[in-house]
Amino acid sequence: MPKIWLKWPWRLQKKRVVLKWPAKGDPLPNIKKPSHQLMGKSTRYDVFMLG
User: Fold this and answer.
1) What is the pLDDT of residue 1?
2) DSSP per residue over the chain, as a string?
3) CB-CB contact of 8 with 19 (8 Å)
4) Which residues span the domain enclosing 26?
5) What is the CA radius of gyration of the chain?
């Protein structure tokens, strides 16, 4: 995945960024730990609270 796809949400949003991942997928390197996660059967939503 190109790095640009992971950088632009943080620049545009003011409250939070939510990334959708496979439930058992490993987190990407060089990305901060999410504030919290919402788990489903096959999907995980990583929520990053901003400023």
Assistant:
1) 47
2) --THHHHHHHHH-SSEEEEEEETTPPPPTTSPPPSEEEE-SSEEEEEEE--
3) no
4) 4-49
5) 11
- pLDDT in single tens digits along all 51 residues of the chain: 445 555 656 566 678 888 899 999 888 788 888 999 999 999 999 998 887
- Total count of domains within the chain: 1
Contacts 24+ apart (CB under 8 A), 35-38: none
Cα–Cα distance, 20 to 23 (Å, whole number)? 9
Measured CA to CA, the distance from residue 33 to residue 44 in angstroms comes to 14
Cβ count within 10 A of residue 14:
6
